[in-house]
Amino acid sequence: MTKMKKIGILTFHRACNYGAVLQCYALNKTLEQLGGSPTTIDYFPSYFRTRYYPTLEPFSIWHIKSWLRHKKIVELKETRNRKFEQFSEKELNLHPGTAHNLQELQEIIQNSGIRTWICGSDQVWNNTCANFDQAFFLYMDLPSGSEKYSYAASFALKELPQDLSAEYRKRLENFKKISVREQSGIDIIRKLQLGEAYEHCDPTLLLTASDWNKIASKVQDDSYILIYHVKKADLLLKKATELKKKTGLKIVYLSSNYYSYSTIYGKQFRKYRYTPVMESSPQDFISLFANAKYVITNSFHGTVFSILFHKNFWSQLHLTDGKVNERVKNLLDKVSITNRWIVDESTPLQENAIDWESVDRRVDSMRTQAKSYLSDIIQETLNN
Fold first, then answer.
1. What pLDDT is stored for residue 43 in this prediction?
2. What's the Rg (C-alpha) of the chain?
3. Residue 342: which of 293, 292, 298 has the closest Cα?
4. Mean pLDDT across the stretch 21-38?
5. Exposed end of the chain (fewer CB within 10 Å): N or C?
6. pLDDT at 2 > cutoff 50
7. How many Cα neighbours within 13 Å face the side chain of 323?
8. 162 Cβ contact partners less than 8 Å away, ≥ 6 residues apart
9. How distant, in Å, are the alpha carbons of 14, 24, 77, 96, 253 from that of 82?
């Protein structure tokens, strides 16, 4: 029996962010379902560790109160991070060896024997994300005969910075096929004169609610309002408080980013009286969405999982810088969900019925297109 040829994936799987890790899981699982043999290259650059792994400041008796508070936050994040590491080791088909810099990554890639490479999804091509790292463009020496692909890679930009256009073109010109997550990405590829590109959905949408429930942690009760945020949550908390007064349900609070004494133990926590679940694992994240009564979010992946689990949800329209949350807006437009925006404090939380059968059909259509693209990559891998 011929051994299946591996497909190497490079993405943000080491970011302790629920969306980043779960999109990597979903791409792996989908490739497996289609008959492929994926493996995630374990690239863990120092800037990811600096961002997600806080260090404890030197003890000072003059600042003992703030030091003890900081210690509690560091311990909480360490607990959460261990859960992410355990999930990655169990679920992401990690390739042997961890690379902490480009030199180590280059060595692992050259010795891997892999000839098919996929980068994406997530904002892997955003020049302000991940230090504009060439690794996430697969811009390095790959084994002879290698082919490069992307899947739902995001620039998270409408236009490239003019001074970087030449660099982008150089990094992307040798891809066999390019798949991006937004129409704006297709426009960018055209402007760079790199030929045809395809628009495909985020990998998390490739799996069904049933697929996700298979790895969800123990079922929670459904007597809560879930807040999940990746930007400041002031508006979400105010709207959740309105809903709490109306329904009598408790607020459960989760974020990938906002770890502070105020949000978990202090001023903000006391003001809104929510239940923080900041130590949640990726499996807990899925369960929290699957079993929530309501969801209020400003996150793209928060919106994705609300859709997958048919939740009564609302997404924030404008982010803190005033810009429209384009990724969420585009997704809701594609599945024809309306009146689920939070614009400002005066926005009523309308509970108009969502035609979930229609939404599911549209999501299924996106899945079909994406799986056809991935199936072609698997077939080309077999022929390579």
1. 98
2. 21
3. 298
4. 98
5. N
6. no
7. 9
8. none
9. 12, 18, 9, 19, 20
DSSP secondary-structure letter at 8? E
**Could you give phi then psi for residue 5, rounded to 5 degrees?**
-75, 135
- 3-class DSSP assignment, residue 341: strand
| Of 21, 45, 102, the residue nearest 285 (C-alpha) | 21
116 phi/psi in degrees, rounded to 5 = -120, 130
- What is the C-alpha separation between 289 and 311, in angstroms, rounded? 8
Structure-block tokens of residue 59 = 């003890």
Q: Is 149 helix (H, G, I), strand (E, B) or coil?
A: strand
Amino acid letter for position 71: K
Q: Which pLDDT band, with edges at 50, 70 and 90, does 59 fall under?
A: low
**C-alpha to C-alpha distance for 32 and 42, rounded to whole angstroms:** 18
SS (H, E, C) 18-68: HHHHHHHHHHHHHHHHCCCEEEEEEECCHHHHHHHCCCCCCCCHHHHHHHH
Tokens 């030199």 sit on residue = 103
Residue type, 325: N
Q: Is 350 exposed, middle or buried (0-12, 13-18, 19+ CB in 10 A)?
A: exposed
pLDDT in tens, 88-126: 999 999 999 999 999 999 999 999 999 999 998 889 999
Beta pairing, strands 294-297 & 275-276: unpaired
Token reading at 274: 């929510």
In the DSSP assignment, the letter for residue 156 is -
Cis peptide before 121 (omega within 30 of 0): yes
Angle in degrees, CA 371, 174, 42, rounded to 5: 65
What is the residue-wise DSSP string for 102-127? HHHHHHHHHTT---EEEE-SSSTT-T
Per-residue tokens: 86: 């355990």
238, 348 contact by CB (below 8 A):
no
How many other CB atoms are there within 10 angstroms of residue 236's CB atom? 24
Beta-carbon contacts of residue 189 (< 8 Å; ≥ 6 apart)? 172, 178, 180, 195, 196, 197
